[in-house]
Design a protein that fits this description.
The complex is a heterodimer of chains A (420) and B (304). In chain A, 68% of the residues lie in helices and 3% in strands. Chain A has 420 residues and is mostly helical. Chain A is globular and about 80 Å long. Chain B has 11 helices and 4 strands, in the order H-H-H-H-E-E-E-H-H-H-H-E-H-H-H. The longest helix of chain B is centred in the first third of the chain and has 31 residues. The chains are: A mainly alpha (420), B mainly alpha (304).
Chain lengths: 420, 304
C-alpha cells in the first residue's frame, strides 16, 4: 500500500466516522420540563472523525512497515514458545494452583484483593462449568446464568426459610440446578446448534422473570437479604458466638478480624473451582467424557456407533448446570443478598465470552480470560459506564485478534497416533 | 368480543414491529449463519436517530408534523443503515471463516458497546416524546368496551405491508436479490460465478438495518418512550420470532413476528402482563418440539 492510498483510506474512514457520529454525537437529547429539545455538540463529531482517521492512518503505516519486513520462515514466535514450553504445560497449572493457595497470605494481599480474587474465582468456576457444555460437548448455551440463579436462590431460600446450613444446602443446590438442567434439556436437546441457543436464552429469561414476579417465594425485585454465612465445621466467622458456641477466632485463639471470613470464602470457592477442574479433567478420560467430545466433533458418526446423542447431551447439560448451581449458592452466601438483577443475560454472555476467549476446551485459558474480563475491569470500577464500553470493545478486539481464543486447545483427548 | 378484537388489533401492530426486526435476523442468519446479536441495538439506534431527526426537523422546519416524520424516516433509514454496515465491517467481516462462536462473541461485544455508547452519549434516562399522530376510528361500540383503531396503528400496519412487499420484490425479482439468494445457498460457488460476496453480505446488513430503523421509528411513535435498553428485549423477541417462523425464511420471519405480537397482546390482555415474555418463549419451545425447523423453515438435510 502506498502512502497516498493510506491517506485516502484514512480520509474515507474519517468521513464514515463523521457520518456515524453525526446523529448520536452531534445532537444531544435534552430532557426538560418543556419536553425534549436538542443540544448541539458538533465538535464531538469532528473529534470522532479525526481520531478514526488518525487511527486508520497509523494502522496502515504499521501494516506497511510490517509488510516490508521479511516474513520469517517456519513457526511464528507464538508457536515456537508453545512448542518450547509444551513439556512445561502441566506445571503451569500446578504453579497457578500453588500461587492461588498462598496468595491470601502474601504481604500485598489485602482484604480488597482477596475479595476480588474470590469474584474472579466464581467466574473461573462458572467458566469451567460452561466449558463442559460448550467446550466439550459443543452445545451452545446462552442461558447458563439460569442454573446459577437456581443454585443461588435454592440456597438462599433453604437457609432463610428452613434455616439449613450452607454445607447441607450446597450439594442440594447443585442437585436442584442439575435437575433443572435435565428438565429443560429433555425436550430441547434434540434441537440443533442455534435453535438450542435461542431456547436456552429464552429459558434464562424465563427464570429471571419468574424470580422477579413470584413475590411470595422470592420476594420479587427486592431480592432476599440476610442470607446466612457459612461456618467452618460449625465455627462461625463472627465477632461473638451465640451462647455455648465458639467463634473461629476463639477456637484458634486468634484476634477477631473480618479478614478471616474473606479469606475463608476465598478458599471455599478455590476448592469448589478446583473440584470442577479436577472433575472435568478426570471425566474427559471416562467413556462419557469421550462421548461428549466425539459428539462435538461429529454427531452423525456418534449415532452410527450406537451412542445416544440425547442422553449424552443431557448428561453434559446437567453436569454443567450442577457446577453453576454450586457456584450460585456460593455467590449467595458470599453476597448475603441476591436479587434477580444479578442474573441477567449479560452474565450468561460474560461466562460464554470467558469460555470462548479462553479457547474452548482449554482449562487454563478460562482462568486467563476470567482474569482479563472480570479481574481487570474490577480495578476500573470508578469509570462506571466507560468500563462496560471498554468491556464490550475488548470482547470484539480479542475475538478479531485471536478468533479461536487465547489458548486454543480443541484437540480431542485421544486420537489415533500419528494421524493428527 | 370487543375486548378480543381490540387485543387482535394491538397484537397485529406489535407483530408488525417485531416482524420488521426479525427480517434482519433471518436474512443475516440465512446468508452467513450467524446470530447477529447487535441487531437489537441497531433497532435501538434507529429509535434514537428517529427522535433526534424528528426534533431537528421540527425545530428547523417550523413544526410541520408530516414533513418532520418524513425527514425522520429518511434520516433514520440512512444513518441506521450506515451503522449496520459499519458493525458488519468492523466486527464480523474479519471473522469470516473463523470458528463458529467467534462472530457470536464479537456480536455480543458489539451489542454491549452500542448500548453503552448510546447511554453515554444520550443519557440513561427514558426519553419521552408526546404523541405525534393523534386520532383514530372507533370501530365497534360495545356495552362496556369500545374497540379503538388509531391512525398510527393503521400507518404502522400499512407501512409494514408496503415494506414487506418491496423486500419480497427485491429478493425475488432484482439482480441483487438473485445474488443474495445465490450467496445464501452456496457462498463459495456464488463467489466463483462472479458474485461479489462481501458486497452482497454488506447489502444484507444494510437492508436489515433499514427495516430495523423503520421498526425503531414505529416504536418511538407508538409507545412514545425510548431508552438505551429497548434493543435487548426487542432483539430477543424478534429473534424468537425469526426462529419460530423458521430461521432463514422471509415469510417465516413475518409470520413469526405476527405470532409473537399476538401471543403477547392476548396473554397480557387475558392473563398477566408480567408473564407475557414467558408465554412467548414457551410457545417457541412448544413449536420447536413439534417442528424443529420452525413453522416455515425448510428441513435441513445433512450431508456427510
Amino acid at each position: 500500500m502506498t502512502l497516498k492510498r493510506a491517506l485516502v483510506d484514512a480520509l474515507m474512514g474519517g468521513v464514515v466516522a463523521a457520518a456515524l457520529a453525526l446523529p448520536m454525537l452531534g445532537f444531544r437529547l435534552v430532557d426538560s420540563s418543556q419536553g425534549l429539545s436538542l443540544g448541539l455538540r458538533f465538535d464531538w463529531v469532528l473529534w470522532a472523525a479525526l481520531i478514526v482517521a488518525a487511527g486508520r492512518f497509523a494502522l496502515s503505516l504499521l501494516r506497511m512497515t510490517a509488510a516490508k519486513r521479511r516474513k520469517p520462515i517456519g513457526p511464528t514466535m507464538g508457536e515456537r514458545i508453545t512448542t518450547r514450553f509444551a513439556g512445561a504445560r502441566p506445571f503451569v497449572g500446578w504453579a497457578m494452583i500453588g500461587f492461588a493457595l498462598v496468595m491470601p497470605f502474601l504481604p500485598f494481599a489485602d482484604r480488597n484483593l482477596v475479595d476480588k480474587a474470590t469474584l474472579v474465582l466464581i467466574y473461573v468456576m462458572l467458566g469451567w462449568g460452561l466449558n463442559i457444555v460448550v467446550g466439550l460437548a459443543g452445545l451452545l448455551d446462552l442461558g447458563f446464568v439460569a442454573f446459577y440463579a437456581v443454585g443461588a436462590y435454592s440456597y438462599a431460600l433453604l437457609a432463610t426459610k428452613l434455616g439449613w446450613s450452607f454445607w447441607l444446602c450446597l450439594p442440594l443446590a447443585g442437585l436442584f440446578a442439575a435437575s433443572f438442567g435435565i428438565a429443560l434439556g429433555f425436550p430441547v436437546l434434540r434441537l440443533r446448534g442455534d435453535y438450542l441457543a435461542i431456547v436456552t436464552l429464552g429459558f434464562g429469561e424465563i427464570i429471571r422473570i419468574i424470580l422477579q414476579n413470584w413475590q411470595d417465594l422470592t420476594n420479587g425485585p427486592q431480592g432476599i437479604s440476610a442470607i446466612p454465612r457459612p461456618t467452618l465445621f460449625g465455627l462461625p466467622f463472627t465477632a461473638s458466638a451465640p451462647e455455648g458456641k465458639q467463634t473461629f477466632a476463639e477456637y484458634f485463639s486468634l484476634d477477631y478480624s473480618g479478614n478471616h471470613r474473606v479469606i475463608f470464602l476465598y478458599f471455599v470457592i478455590l476448592v469448589l473451582a478446583l473440584l470442577t477442574n479436577a472433575f472435568t479433567l478426570r471425566i474427559r478420560r471416562l467413556p462419557i467424557g469421550r462421548a461428549w467430545e466425539a459428539l462435538r466433533e461429529d454427531e452423525i458418526a456418534c449415532r452410527s456407533l450406537g451412542l445416544n446423542p440425547t442422553n449424552i447431551k443431557l448428561s453434559a447439560f446437567a453436569t454443567g448446570a450442577m457446577f453453576a448451581g454450586l457456584a450460585g449458592s456460593f455467590f449467595a452466601t458470599r453476597q448475603g443478598f441476591i436479587s434477580p438483577e444479578s442474573f441477567t443475560f449479560i452474565e450468561s454472555a460474560v461466562i460464554l465470552a470467558i469460555v470462548v476467549l479462553g479457547g474452548m476446551g482449554s482449562q487454563i485459558g478460562v482462568v486467563l480470560a476470567a482474569l482479563l474480563l472480570v479481574g481487570l475491569p474490577e480495578w476500573f470500577r470508578e469509570l462506571q459506564q466507560y468500563r462496560m464500553l471498554a468491556f464490550g470493545g475488548a470482547m470484539v478486539l480479542i475475538m478479531l485478534w485471536k478468533p479461536s481464543g487465547l489458548l486454543s486447545h480443541r484437540a480431542p483427548t485421544i486420537s489415533l497416533g500419528g494421524t493428527k | 368480543m370487543e375486548y378480543f378484537l381490540q387485543q387482535l388489533i394491538n397484537g397485529i401492530t406489535l407483530g408488525a414491529i417485531y416482524g420488521l426486526i426479525a427480517i434482519g435476523y433471518t436474512m443475516v442468519y440465512g446468508i452467513i449463519g450467524m446470530i447477529n446479536f447487535a441487531h437489537g441495538e441497531i433497532y435501538m439506534l434507529g429509535a434514537f436517530i428517529t427522535l433526534i431527526a424528528y426534533l431537528a426537523a421540527t425545530t428547523i422546519g417550523g413544526g410541520s408534523v408530516a414533513m418532520g416524520l418524513l425527514i425522520a424516516l429518511a434520516a433514520t433509514m440512512i444513518f441506521t443503515a450506515l451503522w449496520g454496515w459499519a458493525v458488519e465491517r468492523i466486527a464480523y467481516r474479519p471473522l469470516r471463516g473463523a470458528p463458529k462462536l467467534a462472530p457470536l462473541i464479537s456480536a455480543i461485544g458489539m451489542s454491549i458497546v452500542l448500548q453503552n455508547f448510546s447511554q453515554i452519549t444520550q443519557g440513561a434516562r427514558v426519553k419521552p416524546l408526546p404523541p405525534v399522530i393523534r386520532g383514530g376510528i372507533t370501530l365497534l361500540e360495545g356495552e362496556n368496551f369500545t374497540v379503538h383503531l388509531s391512525i398510527l396503528q393503521i400507518v404502522i400496519v400499512v407501512l409494514t405491508v408496503v415494506l414487506m412487499g418491496a423486500f419480497t420484490w427485491i429478493i425475488t425479482k432484482t439482480p441483487l436479490g438473485r445474488a443474495q439468494r445465490a450467496t445464501e445457498q452456496d457462498m463459495k460457488m456464488a463467489a466463483l460465478l462472479g458474485v461479489d460476496v462481501d458486497r452482497i453480505i454488506s447489502a444484507t446488513f444494510v437492508m436489515g438495518a433499514m427495516l430495523a430503523a423503520v421498526a425503531g421509528l414505529m416504536v418511538t411513535l407508538y409507545y412514545g418512550v425510548i431508552d438505551f435498553y429497548i434493543g435487548f428485549l426487542a432483539g430477543i423477541k424478534a429473534f424468537t420470532a425469526a426462529v419460530l417462523g423458521g430461521i432463514g425464511s422471509l415469510p417465516g420471519a413475518m409470520l413469526g413476528g405476527l405470532l409473537i405480537g399476538l401471543i403477547e397482546a392476548f396473554w397480557s390482555g387475558y392473563f398477566s402482563i408480567e408473564y407475557k415474555d414467558v408465554a412467548a418463549f414457551s410457545i417457541l419451545v412448544l413449536v420447536l418440539l413439534f417442528r424443529p425447523t420452525g413453522l416455515l423453515g425448510r428441513p435441513e438435510v445433512e450431508k456427510i
